[in-house]
Amino acid sequence: MYNHRQIEKKWQNFWKKNKTYQTKENSKAKNFYVLDMFPYPSGEGLHVGHVEGYTASDIFSRFLRMKGFNILHPMGWDAFGLPAENYAIKKKIHPSLVVKKNVANFKKQLDSIGFSYDWSREINTTDPEYYRWTQWIFLKLFENDLAYEAKIPVNWCPSCKTVLANEEAEKGECERCHTKVVRQELKQWMLKITAYADRLLSDLKNLDWPEKVKLMQENWIGKSSGAEVKFEVKNRGLFISVYTTRIDTIFSSTFLILAPEHDLLNELKSDIKNWPEVNRYIKKAKNKPDLERTNLKKEKTGIELKGIKVINPATGAEMPVWISDFVLPNYGTGAVFADAHDERDFIMAKKYKIPLKVSIKPKDEKLWAEVKKLKTCYDGDGILINSGQFDGLTSQEARPKIIFWLKEKKLAKEMTNYKLRDWIFSRQRYWGEPIPIIKCPTCGNQAVPEKDLPIKLPFVKSYEPTGEPESPLAGIKKWVEVKCPKCGGHAKRETNTMPQWAGSCWYYLRFIDPKNKLHLVSEKKEKIWSPVTLYIGGVEHAVLHLLYARFWHKFLFDIKVVSKP
Fold first, then answer.
1. Of 123, 356, 439, 539, which one's alpha carbon is 20 to 30 angstroms from that of 5?
2. pLDDT, tens digit, for every residue of 9-40?
3. Do 469 and 510 meet the contact criterion of CB atoms below 8 Å apart?
4. Can you tell me the distance from the alpha carbon of 245 to that of 268, in angstroms, rounded to the nearest whole number?
């Protein structure tokens, strides 16, 4: 009888003893880098999704070895962040001990299956020798004005007790625990991913990726071209700027809608006759996550700012001003001109009996019969009517002409906009990479000197989230209180930690050169092995890990750490 376990154990021991799958550094064979998305070492061990993907990559790696290729096929552990910490809290065991135990179990399972990994390159994102380079990258981002602190409305998970990036709350709920998120205004560290928006978008065409994944990133970045138009506030000498991609509909605009958080509201407060009612609506709207507010199926709500009027720059007509929670403060200018050719505007106008006017005629006569009676909303292109000198033009013809006409009057300018927002990079949790910043009351935020890296995460018994907008690290006085590296005065460490995505943004580079103490990766080895030839993982990471990793890689290219963008 064939004894599977005995035979498998024999050959697994042989592979280990003879370093069968250890990558040869100076091979004359053609190199091929096969990478799996490294796992969170959860307490449950490997799941079927892991084994499915890892089996596929292992089969391909073995096939290529038999074809004579020199294969780099490594494995490691994405062990910082919420998954590990939440499991530790659940089991009442310190995260460091949980990770150590779970990694050992994962490795045992992977070895028992017989995967052909080069374990000499094993990495763990919680290893100080690894995260010193994660911290180093953050310092370089800070030096290049791509890491900054800002007070912003954020997604707060009441269960995980931490801030979530927009990408982590895409459905209005926490991607880890599925609790409904709420909005809070907090000071957060941000990474300026928007500075790379055009490159992240245009370089998608150079990637040999599934079209589905590229489309997901394209939609997430959400580039649009249009115009910024100025609406004068009557009798105030103020202007409200509106971003639009449909300036061809401006002649049909009959009211203006502001986001409840719009900066101008406080300035107009004294003239708003129903301010108490407006203020109640504002407070309610601020607690709703963006996805709930923009859900097309959600009933449209709003309130008029009584006493406030604006002038339509195209028609000269006075228009009422409303606020509605479907207008977001962080997209465009936080204001829209509303008309009969946008579904949300149309529904809101019908609900509140706001007059509507049609300015785009569709080609379909049956549809036109419905549109002109305001029985249905037409939001497509067509022929302009009720649009003064632009009557008879198609939407495509009219847009540049209307922009030029309003530019001449100094009331508009061309503008490109993105849905992509800067990355919220701080978390109010213990189990993450410490952010290498020192806060000085005199000098402001100061970078930790590179010679002091890594800033090690201190061991604490009480690591559970406090429920306050700060991490448990804030209570460790001995660790927090330091001298300012600039003036030498009393200062404090940043106590928020990095998100779970930080260590996985660049791990594929460290596999190339995991023992290097002087550089993130050597120039020679990076040129030999980069980029990854085959990367296997789940599509759910398309607008999180894969987008973040592309951003960091392009930055590392800009500072000459890697040779290709």
1. 123
2. 888 888 889 899 999 988 889 999 999 999 99
3. no
4. 27
